[in-house]
Inverse folding.
């Protein structure tokens, strides 16, 4: 079910938003709907990129610490 929503925004912002919507080939209502959809998905669950997800816990049982990392950087860049 769709419901009407009234927003109060600055005139200039509305003009810019209408231009943007027209450039995207969408209505301003669709642009706002798309934004809310994306916004609520990010708020509900922050997704982690697959490559990052695959690295989580990979060094859990290692003996590496911050000193090892600093030593690596010194050897690499100095």
């Amino acid at each position: 079910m769709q419901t009407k929503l009234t927003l109060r925004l600055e005139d200039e912002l509305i003009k810019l938003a209408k231009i943007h919507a027209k450039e995207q080939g969408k209505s301003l209502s669709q642009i706002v709907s798309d934004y809310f959809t994306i916004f609520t998905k990010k708020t509900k669950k922050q997704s982690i990129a697959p490559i990052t997800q695959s690295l989580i816990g990979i060094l859990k049982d290692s003996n590496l610490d911050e000193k090892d990392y600093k030593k690596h950087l010194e050897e690499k860049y100095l």
About this structure: The chain has four helices and no strands.
